[in-house]
Each structure stands twice: as structure tokens, then as C-alpha cells.
Amino acid sequence: METYRIIEIKKNITENNDKRAQVVREKLKDSNTFVINVMSSPGSGKTTTLLQTINALKDKYKLGVIEADLDSDVDASTISKTGIKVVQLNTGHGCHMTAAMADEGLEDINYKDLDLVFLENIGNLICPTSFDTGATSNICILSVPEGDDKPLKYPPMFEMCEVMIINKIDAASFFDFDIDKCISHVKKLNPEIKVFPLSAKTGEGIQEWIQWVESKLVK
Amino acid sequence: METYRIIEIKKNITENNDKRAQVVREKLKDSNTFVINVMSSPGSGKTTTLLQTINALKDKYKLGVIEADLDSDVDASTISKTGIKVVQLNTGHGCHMTAAMADEGLEDINYKDLDLVFLENIGNLICPTSFDTGATSNICILSVPEGDDKPLKYPPMFEMCEVMIINKIDAASFFDFDIDKCISHVKKLNPEIKVFPLSAKTGEGIQEWIQWVESKLVK
User: Which of A17, A176, B43, B46 is surrounded by the fewest CB atoms within 10 Å?
Assistant: First the structure.
């Protein structure tokens, strides 16, 4: 009885969220703003990857970042040093970004004037998969220290993403991470996924990822 | 209106969970079974830490592990090689262990015959903080590659735990992780928390953690 009730409520919440996500998606299409929802575990390197990406693209395109965190503005403060627009959303106990939160952040950052906005979702490999933000593209970052078996253990994340970045490849030998095995696991779940192994710290492999981002932007 | 409704429902769910957790806690007290709820991000080293702990204690105490994962039995398979009892719970999209799940797992593993049971919660630094499992003790593992700022960004986890393990300290210089700064952040949130910096891989620092576990067990 209890289970049934929870499921019904969850259906209502996600249905309402899906409607709002569709509204967001239409708005972004109208203004030619490309929005990338970046998801990962805590500490996988979302902010460092965004920093490298922003520094490579900020002179050619108008960029913005919407940061979601339970608490603190550590990441927003880091990103704002690049000189681009940043909005911080604090969620308290909230474990994912909703379409309503994304919409609010996008209005606040004045998305119509921007070519590309990153949503840095809350560090969580599970809950964000149930909530469409309305972003144009969903990507995830898996970092080497987390282990090459993570696609087996958290399949919904890897099934829904257009891109998987494997970050911290400079630490691959230290952590005995098998990149080929990881790619093989993820391709079984999602044959179309694009995989970019890179190190946001050293810059190795970052160009291929940045080229992919640029290929999506309207010149 | 929508927000209010969600909050009300959440209150019902957590109230029901709290009641069930209390039932679990009473049962564990009656049977002198110590249960440790182990929480962390994906890939922080829960399973490796448990392996070391089990191997150190399995000849002196009767042990068991309850594994919760969205999918796969990778961890249960690893732990079962130690020869102790393991139960695997698969949650699908479920992002945390509930008291009902813990209760079911404890019954299945025949907790009354055991001195110590580990609940290896789902890899998630957020949602498990809202759901009391009924465990005797809550602990979390933060691994060095995640960064020393994580207590600032995910405060509820560090506030609720009796112990924080800082794992993968053998990688501290590689990742520029400041152990003192991390401990200072967490002590501001939770002055009573016990901190064990260790490497489950090399065994460095593991003895202090194992001594703490043993101090909790009825001889």
C-alpha cells in the first residue's frame, strides 16, 4: 500500500517536471542556446572540466554556467574567475536539479543572450537521471579513481547520456583503471554514446571534447 | 502548491521509515548485533575498506554484509570470497537504503547469529542522509580524489556520521588533498566526529579504524 502510494506521487512529480522541461527545451531552441547538463559523482571533476572548456571557448562564444549545490558557492566562485556569467542555486537537501530550477537559473542568467550554458548538476550519479532539466544535451563524467565498473552499478546514468567523459586519465596507472573495459561496459548499455577520455588537470585529451562542444554551437 | 504537497508526502515517507528504523534498532539491541551503515559517493572504496575490515575480524567475530546497489552483484561477489555471509539488494532506480530494506536484509542474513553486520549503502552522498536504516552506527567514507572541500558541499552527510574515514590517503600528494583542511571543515559541522585517514589499498592507517570497530563489539 505504501509502495503504491509513493510510486503514484513520483509519477505526478516527474510528469510535471517533464512538462516544464519541454517548455525549457522549446525556449532554448527559439533562442539558439545550447545547454549541457553535466552530471557525475561528487569530486569527479565537473568544475575543473568546465574551467578548461570555458577558457578554450569564452573568446569565441557567449557562455554561462548554472551551479547547483546543496550548500556553499565554492564552484560558482571558482568559475566566476573566468569572467563569464555564473548563477548559484542552493538546494538544501535536494539531490538533483529539476526543470523548474534550470528554468529559473536560465532566466536569471539571461540565456537568450548566450550561445552555450552549462548546468553543473548536483554530485549524484542516481537521482538526476529521473529529472529532465530541459537541457539540449545530457553528459556525464566518470573519473578514474571511481573505478571502471561504475557503468555496471549505475546503468540509468550511462544509458541516458549523449557523452561520457572519463576524467583523471593521468591517474589511470595509479588506480589500475582499464579504459577499454570501461568503454566496453558503457557501450553495452548505450552503443551510441561518445566517450572522451581526458585529464582536465593536465589538458590531455581535452581538445576532442571541446571540438565536440563546438560542433553543436550555431556560429 | 506543488512544493507543499511534495513536502507533506516526504514527511509521511520519512515518518514511516523512522518508525521502522526504531523497530530495527530495538531488534539489534536485543540480539547484541552491531550494525554499521557505510555511506559514500560511488567509488570511494566502501567495498575495499570492508574487505580489509572483514579479513581482520572474521576469525574473532561472526560477520555479515548487506549490499545495496541499483544493479549488479559486483560487490556481493567480491565480499563473498572472504567466506562471510552476504545478502545483495538491488534497488533499480532507488537512491538509498530504507529501514524496510535493511530489515529485510537483516532477517535474510539471520542477524541474530551475528556480532557485526555492515550495510553497504548505495553510492550517494545525499539521499541516504534522509533515511534512517536503524543501524547502530552511521559512518561515511570520503576518498582523497573527491577533494577536501566535500564537507562544505554536502554537509548533512558529515553532520550525521559518527565516523568519517578519509580513504586513498596514498594518493594525497597526487591529488593535492589537504587532510588537515578536510578535518577542519568536517569538525566545524560535527565536533564529535571521529576521523580515520587510511588507505584500504595499502593498509596504512587501517588498524585505528579496526580498533574502533572492535571497541563497539560485545565480546
Answer: A176
Q: Which residues of B touch A127 (CB under 8 A)?
A: 95, 124, 126-127
Is A9 in Cβ contact with B153 (below 8 Å)? no
Q: What is the pLDDT of residues A147-190, one digit of tens each?
A: 999 999 999 999 999 999 999 999 998 998 999 999 999 999 99
Is A129 in Cβ contact with B124 (below 8 Å)? no
Name the 3-class secondary structure at B99: helix
Grid coordinates belonging to A26:
522549446
On whether the CB atoms of residues A86 and A63 are closer than 8 A, the answer is no
- Work out the pLDDT band at A76, boundaries 50, 70, 90: very high
Q: Which of residues 55-114 of A touch B (CB under 8 A)?
A: 69-72, 74-75, 93, 95
Per-residue 3-state assignment (H helix, E strand, C coil) for chain A: CHHHHHHHHHHHHHHHHHHHHHHHHHHHHHCCCEEEEEEECCCCCHHHHHHHHHHHHCCCCCEEEEEEECCCCHHHHHHHCCCCEEEEEECCCCCCCCHHHHHHHHHHCCHHHCCEEEEECCCCCCHHHHCCCCCCEEEEEEEHHHCCCHHHHCHHHHHHCCEEEEECHHHHHHHCCCHHHHHHHHHHHCCCCEEEECCCCCCCCHHHHHHHHHHCCCC
Structure confidence at residue B13 as a pLDDT band (50, 70, 90): confident
The residue of chain A with its CA nearest to that of B90 is A153
Q: Is the dihedral of CA A43, A47, A48, A53 positive or negative?
A: positive
B204 has pLDDT over 50: yes
Count of C-beta atoms within a 10 Å radius of residue B203: 12
